Input
Amino acid sequence: MALLLVGALAACGPVPVEQAELTCLRDAELTVRPRTNVALGVGTGFGGGGTRGFGSVSVDLSGDYLAGRDPSQVYDRCVQRRSGQMPRRPLTEQPGWTG
Output
């Protein structure tokens, strides 16, 4: 039982700054615009042999977007919270940032 508790506490510790930067890049992206996903498909029916269409829509919306927060500040705070360190590079210099 004690080993399980130690393992759980270790999982809550800081992550490497590189990993935090990757994770927080998504948070910064959601500050600029919501992310939407639309899926459509067609499949055969079970038992009746007919064809059926299906679809789904999802929207990932952040409170930072709704509050109009600065993506660079959101990114910096997120990296510091997750890793205990400031980012190695600012958000605008991160590969993949399209802001």
User: Anything to note?
Assistant: Residues 1-9 have pLDDT under 50 and may be disordered.
